[in-house]
Design goal:
- With 447 residues, the chain is of the alpha+beta class.
- Helix content is 29%, strand content 12%.
- A four-stranded mixed sheet has the order 10-9-8-11.
- The chain is globular and about 60 Å long.
Length: 447
């Protein structure tokens, strides 16, 4: 295809989307005063200065070769190439002096963007066997994933280390009474078909796998703060019967006594019903909002489910309750085939924090299951692994395969900070079980 025929597609679509994604991450860095860039809000992650350079370095390392560009700062390209994902192991030990200055990183970023954009006006990258636009889709979605990562990293910064924004409002909405709905036996389709006719997806989203799902019941709502509070007050964090051995050891070692986003200014025990719990939001602290979904690690979600006499759903069960119908056909989204809109859920950077699980009834599935997309990723009991026929991206072979290690669990759905483009049915997220920082909730099933 001639360049002149390709250019309108780039100019009207993918480059504008890349510009929008850049604007989203730029806005997040604008929340940081200079003395915060060398902070490490989460011990397992890099300092924030890494992410400032990483987003541009990733785009450069991905696109420069196909665009015929050569590097003039290979040391920085390498320094900012990869993040870290330690699993119950060693933490990074670097000090602020190991990193370049903010001004140097910003100059590096401007230079990379300018060189890439100049080329992208004239051509587009192509990799044999993939659609011409695949690399640009990867650059866009990688950046939007990091917009969410940066959100929860910034969430962990003390308020005085962030430029103030609108204060978090108290939400007294009462928690709904949890109930279950029966999902009839049926088939769910995981993944998506490969080939040039298919829309973009990451390597772990391809091929398709049809799963026969026996009848089960599932919570209509994600577990709320109010519902989870009963587990805390019942001594759930003090009773090893509810925890897998490795999870209990993690809880004990890290002295985990309550959900990461909860605070108490009381000297009383967590099990005391008079303990005054608060929610630590991105830009303020409010009384614990009872109707918001609970954000916890997989270990904590599993312990609650066992305490409640239930289980976490499998990936297949979650899919069936989200996209299935009584007639057997599967929907593109829980509510139907209409593209995601604000009425359907708390997603696409709309809020810094959660919302009541009852706030978006128009987003419910055919079976009446609420809040499936947005407001918090949902843990499943399925270990992250390849679908049959999996083929890694040749230009990024470790993107998924590095995490097929039996130590990560599939998450579905999305959070308030998840971009709408990643709400597609085939998208699969994953995290290790002992990571309480992400916006992850859950619901329970009975078989």
């Amino acid at each position: 295809m001639a360049t002149s025929q390709m250019a309108p597609v780039l100019q009207s679509s993918l480059p504008s989307r890349l510009g929008e994604a850049r604007a989203r991450t730029d806005t997040l860095f604008d929340l940081l005063p200079p003395n915060s860039f060398y902070s490490r809000p989460i011990a397992e992650r890099h300092r924030l200065i890494f992410y400032l350079g990483h987003l541009e370095a990733f785009d450069w390392n991905l696109l420069s070769g196909p665009l015929g560009l050569t590097s003039d700062q290979p040391a920085l390209d390498k320094l900012f190439a990869f993040g870290i994902d330690p699993v119950d192991g060693g933490l990074p030990t670097d000090v602020p002096g190991d990193w370049p200055g903010i001004a140097q990183v910003e100059r590096y970023n401007r230079g990379l963007r300018a060189r890439l954009d100049e080329k992208l006006r004239l051509t587009r990258p192509a990799i044999s066997g993939f659609e011409d636009d695949t690399l640009l889709h990867v650059a866009i979605e990688h950046r939007l994933m990091h917009a969410e990562t940066l959100a929860y990293l910034l969430h962990n910064l003390p308020l005085e280390k962030k430029i103030p924004q609108t204060a978090l409002s108290v939400d007294p909405t009462p928690a709904p009474r949890q109930r279950q709905v029966t999902i009839p036996e049926g088939v769910c389709t995981l993944g998506k078909p490969p080939g040039k006719s298919s829309s973009f997806g990451w390597d772990n989203e391809f091929e398709t796998l049809e799963v026969d799902v026996p009848s089960f019941s599932i919570d209509v709502f994600p577990v709320t703060n109010w519902e989870y509070l009963k587990f805390v007050q019942a001594g759930g964090y003090e009773d090893p019967r509810y925890w897998k051995p490795a999870d209990w050891e993690w809880r004990r070692r890290e002295r985990i006594e309550h959900p990461h986003f909860w605070l108490t200014q009381s000297s009383s025990l967590a099990t005391d019903p008079d303990t005054q719990w608060k929610y630590r939001g991105m830009f303020g602290t409010i009384p614990l909002p009872p109707a918001w979904p609970i954000y916890v690690s997989h270990a904590e979600a599993s312990a609650f489910a066992k305490w409640a006499g239930r289980k976490l759903p499998t990936e297949g069960q979650w899919h069936r309750s989200a996209y299935g119908t009584t007639e057997g056909a599967e929907r593109e989204y829980p509510w139907g085939d209409e593209p995601p809109a604000a009425k359907h859920g708390n997603f696409h950077h709309a809020r810094w924090d959660g919302a009541a699980v009852t706030a978006h009834p128009e987003g419910a599935s055919a079976f009446g299951v609420y809040d499936l997309l947005g407001n918090g990723w949902e843990w499943t009991s399925t270990v992250f692994g390849p679908l049959p026929g999996f083929q890694p991206f040749p230009f990024y072979p470790g993107y998924s395969a590095n995490f097929f290690d039996g130590q990560h669990y599939v998450m579905k759905g999305g959070s308030a900070r998840t971009d709408a483009c990643m709400l597609r049915r085939s998208f699969r997220n994953w995290f290790q079980p002992h990571y309480p920082h992400v916006y992850a909730t859950f619901r329970c099933v009975e078989e």
